[in-house]
Amino acid sequence: MRNAEERVNFKNHFFKLGQGRIIPKDHPDFWIQLWIRPTCSDDIYELFTAQDIRTVRDHNIVNFLLFIRILTERIIQLSQYDLLTTSDLKQLLNCIRFLTKLLPFLFELSNYLNDIEIDLFWNDKFDPLEYLNTLSQNEDDDIQPKRTVDPSQINNSLAVKLIQSLVDLLFIRGFTIESSTVSANSNKLKHLILWEPGIGHTSKYNKPNLIIECNRLEVLKLLTTLCTNSLYTASLPRLIGTGSKFLTILVATTPRVELLTLVCSLTNLVCRSSRISASENALVNSDSIEFTEARHLYLTYAFQLLVLMIVYPLPKKEEIIMLTEGSLISKKPYNMARLYMGNIHKDNELLFLINSLLNILRMNDAETYTFVKAGNQPSIWATETIMLIWELLQCNKHFRELIGKKFISELMVLLVYYISNFYSVAEHKDLVSVCAYLLLYLSSESEILQDLYFPISSSLYDSFPQHFKLPTHPFTTRDFIVSQICNLLINSIARTSYLGTNKQVPDLVLKALVEILYNLIPPVSDQTCKVHNDISQRLNNPNVRGGLSYATSNLIIMLLSRFLSRTFILDKPFNSSLVALLIRAIAITIVKHPIPSRMLLYAILKNETVFDDLRISIGSLKGVCFNGNHLEKIDNRPPPPPQILQEPVVQQLSPSPTATPPVNPTLSISPEVVHPQIQPVPAPLIRQLSPQNNEELPVAPSSESESIELSLRPKPPIGMSESAREKMRKSSPITKTWGGNEGLRIIISIIIPYVKSTLKSMPIEENLLVVQRIEAIDFAGLIDIQRGKAISMEYLPETPFEPLRFSWGYLSLGWYMSLLYHRIYKTNERVRAHVSIHNNRVINNISASVGKFASGWISLLKTTIIEPSRQEVEESEWVKNSLTIVNHWENTKIKLLKFDVQSTESFFTSSMNRLGSAMMSGQSAPGSVHDMTTTLIRKFSDFKVRNNSSPQLSINPTSQPTGDDQSYPVRPRIRNSVTSLYSLNNLNRTRSGSISRDIGVNRTRSNTFQ
Prior knowledge:
The structure is a single chain. This protein has 45 helices and four strands. 54% of the residues lie in helices and 2% in strands. Among the domains are: 1-156, no CATH class; 456-805, no CATH class; 826-864 and 896-979, no CATH class. A two-stranded antiparallel ribbon has the order 1-2. By secondary structure, the chain is an all-alpha fold.
């Protein structure tokens, strides 16, 4: 709108919906004004605040619902036109924007799912008077039965027509499809043409049409909003069991060709964004930051809708039986979007898809395609990419096979990198959690892990940042992954010391990482090949079948030495299980595969005291037992002797970068060159433990939070589950119920004595020769003797190793989808933050270099000023009118996420302030180099930055995921904003003369309701 007065009048017109009378549906003079007056997005998104919309809704719910229905019908009507005029396009966009703005305030109503949704979207007609009578009847009845959709009305229902119309609108010539791509002889408006080349279509990339992309953005935004009514569901099981009817219709009933074209278009668009060439990915537009923001918003909404469609599980039977009863489909309903993605099988398409997704993971916030460097942020689409990869691994066997053959090493290393670099950044908690659980999933799939046991690719290792490399070159990818996880956990635990600086790994991620170690330590390659032992390399020789290297084995025992203290075990209820998993993994490895594990056996012999100290720590826990999954003290238990409460192993650890676990003095092995394997770890403090009766055990978490966390844990190994503990005598101490007892006994009582007795008869020689002697020991004979007596079936070589597997259930899947909904909610802020960071780099580069060439540019600019073309002006105006800084979900009663409103100054804001202060601090003459530089910086900034208060989010009821800890810079408001009745009246007073002030106020009040 041209001025504030027009906005005031338009807002007053909207407020008439909240007056005490029902506005007839056949009153076009009133309704049409609501979609022909706005000229840009902010005339809707910014003009009407949450309070304004709730006021109208609460004063007259019937008019509010009627308006939503009329907007929907108008969108459906316009989508069926044979030709869309400029006026039609304007009306269509405004209807889409209004509906997008109002839907969250509809979804937040407590009776939406069981009442309003059926009347408004699933009936042929909506009679305001009849609905008013229904409301009064409901107030009289105390108990309302759950209403169901009438099958006879489904086919012609507003919901079905709206979804079909929105899909159609994504392929309309001149609106979302460029006219130049359509045959001139075609009279049809709808054309099912792929947006980008890639899967299903190969050609060169064209320059993006910003007007077409902005129109697609509007439609995608509405589609996504329709599918996010689950944001207003508090229960994670209900989130999955009930689902979203709109999303169900989209993925299960959309005609095959239309849905396939949509899925391929979204996929190809995502893949284009990963291209290395800037001209191909079109991510950055140097002409305007608004063009870049529009492009990123378009890509983000497309990516999120694609992932949402593929991840979405159809709800329970009673929620989808309407599809067959209403004759929308004739067979059992399926998620057809997931089915189509699962059927991609051509090698070139699979390679195109995999390379594109991995490219996004390699891309950092600077949109360069080297390995993400320290200090850089991950790609803005990293979380969605990892979710999409996970879904494709589950639904597409061809994708899975190709990943296993060629890409598994790089994928798993990338996941480890994201975890180790961003686990302490609250903004990336979602990303780290998804990475950890995908890594757990991959580590349990033995058929695709064979590449991990072969030498790591030199090109892959050389691409790592220096801080991510190991002190010694790893032999296999498995060695590298295990070493990095051990380094991360060792350094994280070290923060308890007075020198520690690292943040602690979140509990969920800590559990997942130890479970990953449990899965990765025991397996070996199926292929047997000869290994040459080079005596000059000493302990840096490889092992047969890709067994663990000495450096990796040393790190595993170093981690165990950090886990074994009584303080750590009692710190949290699950810590004893983590220690048990690690000790079981070591025992399984050396019993099942003793020859490939020769280096691990050697490391165990050198550090025998670590296992003795673990035995002592566990033995000191006789006064503590498990009650369910919580630790409790056993009454009337005397405190253990003081000497048992010490932590001797911690005292022996060296704080130097080359620290290794203490050497067993009883085994005489010649000294060796130290192989530094971990990053510098501060020396832990030696803490004096108080008597046992005064120890404070961890407080049990809430049942809701605990049940969700438990759903994310895999089924534990034999003897470690809660049910196994319940079979024992009540209040049995941890010393009896601990899951690592057998593994520790096998190592201490069977393996170590047997190896030592065998080596005693041999002369002391070079360390490599000792390792070769260990390799030659007859372990098969030992196992045969102990079979069924001291070694249970789980540990025997003929028993297949059973890894820990991530399992899907209502809670875990609900948690997983809530991460995606959290991403969707924060779309606007994330995109603005990302674009602002990139723009800040451009500004800094200009400020550093433009001064050197400014004097030369002055004459160049004077002679080469080019006026923008008419098309460029139209494009620029269209983009500006499409963008908004308003998050339309904000300030609605979202139940899936919880809010923590904080007001902080963003990094970009402070950076720009510093830059501006520096540039403006000195006086300069007009036309000088300094003045020229300042002017250019202002031009390239292209927007002002203001302080902003941003709501922080996390999943309810658990603490996952946590939202950003910073506020984001925002795009400038292009027009004046009128955001409340108070400001309307205040504005009118200002505009009125002193004589007619009272008259103006009264006129304003007469047009509004209180």
